[in-house]
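Cross-posted from the bioinformatics board.
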Amino acid sequence: MARLPVYLRALHNLQELGVATVSSEELAAAAGVNSAKLRKDLSHLGSYGTRGVGYQVEYLVYQISRELGLTQDWVVAIIGVGNLGRALSGYGGFASRGFRVAALLDADTRVVGRRISGLTVEHIDKLETVVKDREVSIAVIATPAGAAQAVCDRLVEAGVTSILNFAPVVLSVPDSVEVRKVDLSIELQILAFHEQRKAGGPMADQIVGDYAPLRRNDPPESAPYVEAVDA
Amino acid sequence: MARLPVYLRALHNLQELGVATVSSEELAAAAGVNSAKLRKDLSHLGSYGTRGVGYQVEYLVYQISRELGLTQDWVVAIIGVGNLGRALSGYGGFASRGFRVAALLDADTRVVGRRISGLTVEHIDKLETVVKDREVSIAVIATPAGAAQAVCDRLVEAGVTSILNFAPVVLSVPDSVEVRKVDLSIELQILAFHEQRKAGGPMADQIVGDYAPLRRNDPPESAPYVEAVDA
DNA sequence: CCGACTTTGTGCGTCCGTTCACAAAGGCTT
DNA sequence: AAGCCTTTGTGAACGGACGCACAAAGTCGG
């Protein structure tokens, strides 16, 4: 379940506060979900609560960590050391949860050899070697859009089965490979959409009578549109 | 719909290739979705296709842009200029889609006054002034977890109604405010979960007979667990 | 001008996730 | 030791998203 990490974080916070026991109601509030949903989620890992009391924080942390595979270390490689790749390489949230960044790769010879966050940037040519020798299991793609699919193909070929993709493209991979996508500009676009909704729907800044959807086959020739290019 | 930005990107790519018309089947493949779903999505903005032919790329781009509110400019403020905030401020995908970063704010006096991506970092004290004077409608929170809720409260108070949160906390806001969350470490944890599944479920690296869920009320005292702290 | 072919738009059945509500279970107090 | 009170775990109803499959609509060639 995608919510387990959220629960885990909330539990860690409680742990730091010295809380030993928590009810589903309290934990659900901290995680921002419905308490029944939380109980059902937790029941999927077996029953670890005590009726009348709640859940033992410490034990639950261990169970969820185990379920998520955080009791073992995962070797991560970051491909593409632009602004985003650099930020990711220095992100403390990785190391603290068992994710060890073991390689930074880039095609740009101007950054190859530079040391970033304690690692030396290596050339993308070494991708296959690095993946195999260091047993990389998770790769982070932070390249420009144009390079992402090629990099992805090489990663898959080299045996990587989990990919976190920051490039604004839809990667095509075999079913056996898990891809998760984070697209920053899409997030902003969704916010803009809702923001516009609040302001009264599309075109609220223009003539109000223009609300109705255009009839089908309205001539598109004169329609203005925004030109946008990828980063 | 959260898929519109994906369609829009695919359409932009087609446009650059000089394609004038596209069928739902082709566009769906490019966006990585089912063609019936795509048609249904598009029909929600009114009917803009021609049976037997497909959709006019240029017109569709305009319609989706309009629906998403990309025909107008959105003013964005980034709070927190650490690694991530810096990367975001230089991210080309924002400006190209009508998002104008108008302010960088930080509490750290060592970075206040520095110029980053063409903007001067300002002190967080000016948050209210900046939001109001520059008509910020979307804020990006890239602060440490501990500061996020306080910053969020001030943003909401100042009138911001859309927030993109990168801090690993669940923000509490009024219903009228839209929050989207991007948590990098959660994405990796989900990948780790699937990766572990492939490897044979939890604890596959330990005794294999340990598969069965622990009985309820197993003594938790001796359970090892990973200690994790926030970034 | 007509018929065949292509592609849209959508009605409908299916399935998954969410939520309510309650019975069972366990602790705590007296 | 017994009953009360809290909280879990889950059955069942609900709702929404998804995808199939098809009729309607429109194009294009002859």
